[in-house]
Amino acid sequence: MSTEVAPQQVVATDGAITVLRNLRATFGPLMLVQSGGCCDGSSPICLRAGELLLGPNDLELGEVDGVPFYCDREQYERWNRPRLVLDVAPGPAEGFSLEGLAGVHFLSSTATACDDSAR
Fold first, then answer.
1. Using CA atoms, how far apart are residues 24 and 52, in angstroms rounded to an integer?
2. pTM for the whole thing?
3. SS3 of residue 33 by DSSP
4. pLDDT of residue 114 exceeding 80
5. How far apart are CA 18 and CA 104, in angstroms?
6. Distance of CA 116 to CAs 45, 60, 119, Å?
7. Which of 33, 58, 95, 114 stands 20 to 30 A from 44 (CA)?
């Protein structure tokens, strides 16, 4: 199923890009999905491309180093359409996100006007 593509609404830190490149070298093409579930809070999940079926309500917020980043349209609207920053932190990922195998986890935050660490 096709999804709508928003103007580029996600950027990433250098650390997050490095982790994505390492994961892509190991697993091949990837996808990122901003989770909004109750079990894992609201965190980005990194999967092999196509591992999660996308629906008509999924919105592509852009790409991070060639990896598409998706979010549920209603969730994104409730958050007032923020520009998100993908980052990485030490510690295992909750759930089944691929970066957990490397002992790190992705996180997202709202970009600010002076956020120079993301691209």
1. 16
2. 0.83
3. strand
4. no
5. 12
6. 24, 23, 8
7. 114
State how far the Cα of 71 lies from the Cα of 47, in Å rounded to an integer: 14
Q: Please give the structure tokens belonging to residue 86.
A: 């993908």
- Tell me, what DSSP letter sits at residue 112? -
Angle at 90 between CA 89 and CA 92, to 5 degrees: 105
- pLDDT tens digits, residue range 11-53? 999 999 999 999 999 999 999 999 765 554 578 999 999 998 9
Tokens of 2: 């096709």
Q: Where are the alpha helices (DSSP H) in the chain?
A: 14-27, 73-78
CA atoms within 13 A of residue 10's CA, in its CB half-sphere: 26
